[in-house]
Amino acid sequence: MAQKVQRVKGVNDILPLEAKQWQALEHIVKQVMDRYAFGEIRPPIFEKTELFARGVGEDTDIVSKEMYSFSDMSKSSLTLRPELTAGVVRSYIQNNLQQISPVQKLWYEGPMFRQERPQKGRYRQFWQFGAEAIGSPNPEQDAEMIALFYAILKELGIEKSVTLKINSIGDGESRALYRSALQEFLRPHLSLLSETSQKRFESNPLRILDSKAPNDKDLVKDAPKIRECLNDASATHYAEVLKMLEAMDIPYVQDDLLVRGLDYYTHTIFEFTSNALGAQDAICGGGRYNDLIKELGGQDVPAIGWASGIERLLLVVDELQPLKTDSGLDLFLIVQGEDIRVKAPKLIHEWRSAGLNCDLDTLRRSMKAQMREANRQEARYVAILGEEEFDQGVVQLKNFETGEQEAVSFNDVVSTIKKALSS
Ligand code: AMP
């Protein structure tokens, strides 16, 4: 036997049964996005490497060690997108979307690629859906973004098992102030910090706050809080976001150590976590990124966005409240007799053309085996067609749920089933 080819480490096959769950989730996401007036955007899967280096930040884990980069025939360095905010912003700038409307509310869904160490809930190809609102600097936009993801959680029926953690890292001025305060606090203990945190001490000291190293965690417990360094404008913005969340009955906890791993954030940052997951407990993360559009060559336009991992969200949904799906098959046609087998395809073709979801056996199996297959596919109806029925122009139509059976003429099959299904 020829050797089997295995899938690449850290990626998943989503098989038909599981895909039903995905579709049910996607349906909810799309409906909620419509309700909140977000339009879908589908940027490409790969971009110039430079976009992520500049957009996500050279210093981040994503860019420094996780990207799938390659050169194409023209020797340009390209990268499979590790996230989509940079791609959406690139597209916004390139397509002059601000000319269509001063606020662009966009959502997306698709696979992302990061060379992380695979484990439960952490993959090398994983899917995200996300939303970006580009154009408004105001706190109501932050509140709307958070309400948008919360609405999806509510539709999934899991909002009570999820925690919204929120923090503000303020504007540039507040962050500069905090950076110095934090460095001053950490400097005497520099040698006790983990190697990574020592490296970040100069380049990105805020990231030391979310270090997983036990020593670092102990140290930062008593560190000054960024909230205490926010200037008036930043503090007011943050307070207003919290007030609006309260008014909308969206519970949150303030997390002074939340800084998030990407470089582009300003002001409000947040994460939704679930304790139904293990170590990888974040199901959604996002925040405001007021400087990114300018940094990528666009105008000085503020924005805010979030992204949620579909595999992880489905792990939570599976654990707490599995999504309802049905087989979708209205009818399975069971045929008996050699002659009938050649006539059946035309019949089922007509029913399918009229909008019925139906199937039939192409292996020429016994009646019993065909019935088993109809059962396996959870068909709502079976239609039995033998020579006698064919001569009379009817099928024996059987409702699988009630067991009721009646002879129905070929032409009435579709209307009979549609009527029964709609009542
Ligand atoms: P990030 O883009 O890192 O802020 O991640 C946003 C969300 O994407 C996280 O909250 C996770 O739900 C999901 N996510 C990030 N990285 C992975 C991964 N390697 N595998 C699966 N899901 C991921």
Walkthrough of the structure:
The chain is an alpha+beta fold and 423 residues long. Helices cover 39% and strands 21% of the residues. It is built from 15 helices and 16 strands. The chain has helices at residues 16-35, 49-55, 61-66, 85-94, 139-156, 172-186, 195-203, 214-220, 232-247, 292-295, 310-320, 338-353, 367-376, 387-392, 413-422; strands at 39-40, 46-48, 69-71, 77-80, 104-113, 125-134, 162-168, 253-254, 266-274, 282-288, 303-309, 331-335, 358-360, 381-385, 394-399, 405-409. The chain has an 8-stranded mixed sheet. Strands 13-12-14-15-16 form a 5-stranded mixed sheet, sandwiched between helices. Helix 1 (16-35) packs antiparallel against helix 5 (139-156) and helix 5 packs parallel to helix 9 (232-247). The radius of gyration is 28 Å and the shape is elongated. The mean pLDDT is 94. It binds adenosine monophosphate.
Characteristic key phrases:
about 40% helix; eight-stranded mixed sheet; single chain; about 425 residues; binds adenosine monophosphate
What is shown here, in short?
The protein is 39% helix and 21% strand.
Topology:
Elements (H helix, E strand, L loop, with lengths): L15 H20 L3 E2 L5 E3 H7 L5 H6 L2 E3 L5 E4 L4 H10 L9 E10 L11 E10 L4 H18 L5 E7 L3 H15 L8 H9 L10 H7 L11 H16 L5 E2 L11 E9 L7 E7 L3 H4 L7 E7 H11 L10 E5 L2 H16 L4 E3 L6 H10 L4 E5 L1 H6 L1 E6 L5 E5 L3 H10 L1
The chain binds adenosine monophosphate.
Adenosine monophosphate (AMP) binds next to strand 6, strand 10, strand 11 and helix 11.
